[in-house]
Amino acid sequence: MLHIPQLLKPDELELIDSLLNESAFLDGSKTASMAAKAVKNNLQIDRQDQDTLPRIQAIFDEALRASPLFQIYSMPAQIVPFLLSKYEIGMAYGWHVDSPFMGQPPIRTDLAMTVFLSGPDAYEGGELVIQGPQGVTAFKAGKGDAVVYPCQYLHCVNPVLSGQRCVAVSWIQSQVKDIGHRQILFDLNQVHGSLYQRDPNAPEANLLLQAHSNLLRMWAGS
Ligand SMILES: O=C(O)CCC(=O)C(=O)O
Ligand SMILES: [Fe+2]
Q1: In Gene Ontology terms, what is one molecular function of this protein (predicted)?
Q2: Using an 8 Å Cβ cutoff, are 41 and 29 in contact?
Q3: Which residues contact 49 (CB under 8 A, 6 or more apart)?
């Protein structure tokens, strides 16, 4: 999983805040499928909304395009339009896995993403808790931060005890389907980045980039 600090800039957050204030929120369990419906208790902006959602989506499109960390980690092929959710006092989303296909037309959900639109001081409880191979991690990230995690992982949102928690969530089909392949490519990319920073002409930086590119060609498109 990956924490991206400050995916959104302060002026983008300000605009999103004002758009959210104008929007009507509906019962969020309507957009959950099967088992998730029973454990989902939050509010969401209507998917059919033609006013607010497209404007917020445009901000996210640009922010994701401009984030090297997001691009390197997720290698997106397709991204589901963002859902805007609000958790008020007592609301929560119990342990669940996300559907393997989402969106219209459906895409394969390799990665899930939460963008935090409320700062950690705006609510108590409400942590995004993810059960990864190394154990459980609870995220309560800064306003404008994002967390991206593989859809293989069970996760939940703890009950909000005070205040309110606004987030935007989406799902990504990666160019690289396999979670282990993605991790190797991400690690190689990080090492290449630091070698390149030390010396852009270092032959080993080129060799590493060559190995990364060749692996990406080998593993992409699955
Ligand atoms: O609110 C969140 O951070 C995650 C929500 C979630 O798990 C979902 O919508 O499937
Ligand atoms: Fe989920």
Answers
A1: dioxygenase activity
A2: yes
A3: 23, 24
Q: How many Å apart are CA 127 and CA 119, to the nearest integer?
A: 12
Among the listed residues 30, 161, 184, 16, the one whose alpha carbon sits nearest the alpha carbon of residue 87? 161
Q: Report the nearest atom of ligand 1 relative to the CA of 116.
A: 3
Q: Which amino acid is at 76?
A: P
CA angle 205, 208, 209 (to 5 degrees): 85
The distance of Cα 104 from the centroid of its chain, to the nearest Å, equals 18
Low-confidence ranges of the chain (pLDDT < 70): 222
pLDDT given for residue 38 in this prediction:
82
From the alpha carbon of 139, which atom of ligand 1 is closest? Answer: 3
Pocket around ligand 1: residues whose beta carbon is below 6 Å from it? 85, 93, 98, 114, 128, 155, 157, 167, 169
